[in-house]
Amino acid sequence: MFASVRARARACGVDTVRVLCVGPNVRVGEAYELGREYDAGERTRDEAALRVEFRAGLYHEETVERTADVAFAFNAGVWGYDPSDWHPTIERVVVRERTPLVLTSYSLREAESDEDAMRASLSGFENVMWEWEAEKNASCSSEVRELGFDRTEYMKKDASGESSQDVLRENFAWQCVAVN
């Protein structure tokens, strides 16, 4: 699990990579307990150890012992929520903790909408910059995400009024915002 991340971390002298998964919809199997850190990989000569913890809740309401080196929001759909839902977490991560935030989306069109929503959320803060703007993620899922409803109503219409033909995939597009 996370072999390339663990190998790169070890090459940089890191002994342990810690992953904290937080979100209102986080679920774990029977073998795990929310709020407890687990060993997910021992340290070797070539790989850092891996520790993983799962929490159900909103990151901005959680007590976190250490600031992350990078934060990820997978398929977050920031554009589709009221700004008050995501703004406190984005502000805490990017501005207060000064942690780069990588956000993924199901399509490039959705990523662009997420970027617009995050720019609006962070507009009142100085030195906010995009390490990279919304773009296709070369490591996205190869599986098409099926929807349980007619997708033409889900996807935005383009300037001509035609429905987008975007294919939805897990982590299809990504972007990274940080404080300079």
From TrEMBL:
Which InterPro entries does its entry note? Mss51-like_C
Residues in Mitochondrial splicing suppressor 51-like C-terminal domain copies: 16-138
| Source organism, top-level taxon | Eukaryota
By what name is this protein known?
A: Mitochondrial splicing suppressor 51-like C-terminal domain-containing protein
Origin organism of this chain?
Answer: Ostreococcus lucimarinus (strain CCE9901)
